[in-house]
What does this fold into?
Amino acid sequence: MKKIWSILVLFLILAIVGVSGCIGTNSVQNKTFSSSGISFQYPGNWSDNVTVNWTSGNAQNETIGNLGNGNVTLGVLYINASSQPLFASYDIPSLGNLAVLSWKSDGTNTTVLSNTNRQIGNNTVDEIIYTSPNPVSGAVYKYYYVITGEQGKSIYILRFGAPEADFANYYSQFQGIVNSINITK
It folds into this structure.
């Protein structure tokens, strides 16, 4: 009788664990992006070979990464600030303010929703959320624009984008990527 109760208890424990999702094969391993002095973790189901429609407008600025999953994209831009006096003289929050000012005057129907900054480790991160028409489809996209780096040396701009209706579903993923940023340059 004791054996039957032991088997029933064991079966009950396995059933509870199985139903709760602790046993499963759907875990997605993160990948690591690393280039030009910046690294971060991103979801393993994202591709690292996608087209991100944006230009830096300057040959000295280098797009170092284009990641994404379907309509969700991340473009990574590196700016060597030491070779560009405009960027070398501004701190990270000021660069964010300059970006906001340029969007307000460029006629692209960009609407800035928030502009904040915070510290991640030793790095200041300026975070801007805005909406703008996608240059290819014309659909309204919501963007999470992140500027970080070291004043006068290296500046990194990460621009996350998703269709406006889907943005909230991905925002915590975007923040997780930003929180994993490590700068070595």
Summary: Residues 2-20 form the longest helix (19 residues). The CA atoms of residues 55 and 63 lie 8 Å apart.
